[in-house]
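Budget justification, computational time. The allocation requested in the original proposal was used primarily to generate structure tokens for proteins on the priority list. As evidence of use, we reproduce two of the resulting records. The first is shown immediately below.
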Amino acid sequence: MRAEYDFSKARRGKFYRPLDQGYTVHVTKKDGTIEVNHYRLAEGTVLLAPDVAEFFPDSESVNEALRSLIHLAKKVPIKKYSTQRMALRQVAEKK
């Protein structure tokens, strides 16, 4: 890094916003006008985290993985665990 670069007042993640909340782009044109565009994810669009996306090169591979997970979930019986309360026991005798 060159000495003239000063990052002492820098904040990490200053411009980071999750894409699922949407974002706004301001485009300044040559004539001085500003065009403002608002973007949001389309209905039904799913945003994968980067660590997950590296395992899925396209949407078909994601769909295939989810279909196999759904198939497995249907085969595995759902176990409902009942919480059994222990009977209250008297520790000392009453006099």
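The second record produced under the same allocation is shown here.
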Amino acid sequence: MDWSKSEVQKLINAKNDRVTFTKYDGKSPVWKYFELVKVDNASVPFVRCIQCSCVLKWKSKDGTSGLSSHYDACCKKLPTSTRKLTDLASMQPAVPKVPTHLKSDLADALVWTCAKDIR
């Protein structure tokens, strides 16, 4: 039977016993975040993201660039508390944006402090 992505996703969301997952020992490091999907013990052309349980269409000839793109986007959406320590090592630190009015207020306060100290 040809399964659609939405049908497979519904089975996974319902935690149906017909769906099983297997790890794939591919060369790419992205495989530690994905599992191959089987329905009724038959392989289907889909993988599941371990982080968000999203189903992605995948065939071996497709390569892993799509999986890597999904993982990069998926990891950014996750709250920090659900990320693993190993995931954090590959991420760039988030630098908060300081509003312009606060920068201006800080600059004024520094100028005032310097002027007052020099008298």
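A brief technical remark on that second record: The longest strand covers residues 42-49.
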